[in-house]
């Protein structure tokens, strides 16, 4: 789902724009959340005596007396506070109130708004001059802002936002989303992301109809924390009648996580085989290979990560899963760098994606095709098939294959299953299927093809037999936990 939470500030424009040093800034009132945040970042909060209701960050600002809404201030209420200085965003008002306050000698400053990085830095500079803040505090805040700008640039690259269309929602007015038009801070934020505001055909913040949203059909939806608070959770938001049929609500971000250990000969072929249009991002995780896998992978256009030490198959996969979801994936597709499995098989999983499945298994047996068609070694097939059939019947798990290296992990898997407690070896791939069953996740399987040309494995007969015994052990632990006899870190309470 391409819906993101942000924190923004709203403004329009008119007068009192003076950045000269104030004669007295001991008792400051602020009308505008962005200015409150700046004052706190400058460590000048001891001067504040009251703020408006849009000043909800940082949280301690909400403990100060309130002067009401930035656009609906009261002369009497402000005079009762005896402020020496009033700082406001450029939509502070109404104008009559400001004129009345100015007539009695209260210093009023409206900070100019410009919806750009330069505009933000200028706002900081203006507040700094008015309050007489030391240069070091200003420089520290400017450094912080520039770091955020850098993060935005990374976000733009990570989500490939350039030339994408975005709709930014401030809140709900009744059942209609209030969205950012042009000449708003929301529009400026979208521009910083390198994207296009799909609602830039009007000025300001306005409620829009379902028909208008569906006609525009944005690629992404941004929503403020204030706006999201009207809903119980992200799922409820995405099912709002105005949003649920948009591309943003329906789209799933799918990342490829390529797992590699000493697979140098197959890397180029695998890269050429991957359909890049199927994945929003491709990661390549080299598990400290002893051959030139890492060097070869660096030649291609995917993000290559090399472990400082060998983590084992399961350890490398854990790292890959976590990296994918931390960086915004809805689904992460496990692909082995040995090029054994068709990396593009996930095209069959569309219905699973739309129904939030937690785990999708790629099976070589799902269509009951002749097992030797792809050259799968007979003993390998026989052991896999017998064990998979036995496990399926014993555990009532409707899968035709359990011992496969092609899996698609959903966000619900990442958020629900304690997969980090699983083995760092190949047993990991079996344990997580049992975990999906134990935690009642939706799971399913798709048909995959495979190739054994040049195939080699580090799993000899001894390791294969030991792996089989480990499977039986995990099944035993599963039943102990299921019947509440004994839990463990793989199957906790």
Task: Describe the model.
By secondary structure, the protein is an alpha/beta fold. It folds into 3 domains: 11-134, Nitrogenase molybdenum iron protein domain (Rossmann fold); 165-250, Nitrogenase molybdenum iron protein domain (Rossmann fold, 3-Layer(aba) Sandwich), CATH 3.40.50; 254-459, Spore Coat Polysaccharide Biosynthesis Protein SpsA, Chain A. 37% of the residues lie in helices and 16% in strands. It contains 18 helices and 17 strands. 37% of the residues are buried. The model is unreliable at 6-15 (pLDDT under 50).
Low-confidence stretches: 6-15
**Alpha carbon gyration radius:** 29 Å
- Kindly report the spatial arrangement of strands forming the biggest sheet: 13-12-11-14-16-15-17
What is the arithmetic mean of pLDDT?
86
Structural class: alpha/beta
What is the count of distinct domains? 3
In short:
This protein is an alpha/beta fold and 493 residues long. It contains 18 helices and 17 strands. α11 links the parallel β11 and β12.
Identify the notable features of this structure and list them briefly.
493 residues; alpha/beta; Rossmann fold; Spore Coat Polysaccharide Biosynthesis Protein SpsA, Chain A; 3 domains; 6-stranded mixed beta sheet; 17 strands
Chain-wise SSE layout:
Layout: E1 3-6, E2 28-31, H1 33-41, E3 48-51, H2 75-79, E4 85-88, H3 95-103, E5 107-110, H4 117-131, H5 135-158, E6 165-173, E7 176-180, H6 185-192, E8 196-197, E9 205-207, H7 210-216, E10 220-224, H8 225-228, H9 234-238, H10 247-250, E11 254-260, H11 264-273, E12 281-286, H12 293-297, E13 303-306, H13 312-326, E14 331-336, H14 350-354, E15 359-363, H15 378-395, E16 407-410, H16 411-416, H17 428-438, E17 443-447, H18 461-482
Parallel strand pairs: 1-10, 2-3, 2-4, 4-5, 6-8, 6-10, 11-12, 11-14, 12-13, 15-17
Antiparallel strand pairs: 6-7, 7-9, 14-16, 15-16
Helix pairs in contact: 4-5, 17-18
């Amino acid at each position: 789902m391409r819906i993101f939470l942000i924190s923004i500030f709203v403004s329009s424009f008119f007068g009192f724009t003076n950045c000269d040093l104030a004669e007295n800034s001991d008792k400051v009132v602020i009308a505008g959340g962005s200015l409150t945040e700046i004052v706190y970042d400058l460590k000048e909060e001891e001067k504040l005596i009251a703020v408006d209701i849009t000043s909800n960050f940082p949280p301690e600002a909400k403990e100060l007396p309130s002067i009401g809404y930035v656009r609906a201030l009261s002369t009497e209420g402000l005079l009762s506070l005896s402020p020496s200085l009033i700082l406001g965003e450029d939509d502070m008002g109404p104008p009559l109130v400001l004129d009345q306050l100015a007539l009695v000698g209260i210093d009023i400053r409206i900070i100019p708004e410009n919806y750009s990085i330069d505009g933000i830095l200028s706002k900081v500079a203006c507040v700094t001059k008015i309050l007489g803040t030391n240069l070091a505090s200003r420089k520290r805040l400017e450094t912080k802002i520039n770091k955020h700008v850098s993060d935005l640039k990374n976000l733009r690259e990570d989500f490939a936002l350039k030339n994408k269309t975005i709709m930014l929602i401030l809140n709900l007015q009744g059942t209609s989303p209030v969205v950012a038009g042009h000449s708003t801070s929301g529009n400026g934020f979208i521009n910083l992301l390198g994207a296009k505001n799909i609602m830039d055909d009007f000025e300001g913040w306005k409620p829009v109809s379902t028909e208008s949203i569906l006609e525009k059909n944005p690629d992404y939806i941004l929503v403020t924390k204030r706006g999201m608070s009207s809903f119980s959770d992200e799922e409820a938001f995405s099912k709002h009648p105005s949003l649920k049929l948009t591309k943003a609500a329906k789209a799933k971000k799918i990342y490829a996580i390529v797992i590699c250990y000493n697979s140098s000969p197959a890397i180029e072929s695998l890269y050429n085989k991957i359909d890049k249009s199927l994945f929003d991002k491709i990661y390549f995780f080299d598990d400290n290979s002893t051959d030139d896998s890492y060097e070869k992978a660096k030649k291609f256009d995917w993000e290559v990560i090399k472990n400082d030490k060998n983590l084992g198959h399961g350890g490398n996969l854990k790292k890959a899963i976590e990296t994918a979801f931390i960086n915004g994936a809805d689904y992460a597709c496990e692909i082995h760098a040995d090029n054994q499995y068709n990396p593009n098989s996930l095209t069959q999983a569309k219905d699973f994606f739309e129904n939030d499945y937690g785990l999708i298994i790629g099976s070589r047996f799902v269509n009951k095709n002749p097992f030797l068609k792809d050259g799968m070694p007979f003993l390998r097939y026989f052991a896999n098939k017998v064990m998979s059939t036995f496990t399926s019947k014993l555990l009532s798990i409707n899968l035709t294959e359990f011992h496969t290296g092609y899996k698609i992990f959903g966000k619900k898997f990442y958020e629900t299953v304690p997969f980090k407690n699983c083995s760092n070896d190949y047993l990991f791939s079996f344990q997580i299927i049992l975990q999906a069953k134990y935690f009642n996740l939706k799971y399913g399987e798709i048909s995959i093809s495979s190739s054994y040309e040049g195939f080699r494995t580090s799993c000899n007969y001894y390791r294969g037999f030991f792996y089989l015994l480990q499977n039986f052990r995990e099944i035993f632990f599963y039943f102990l936990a299921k019947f509440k006899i004994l839990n463990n870190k793989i199957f906790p309470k």
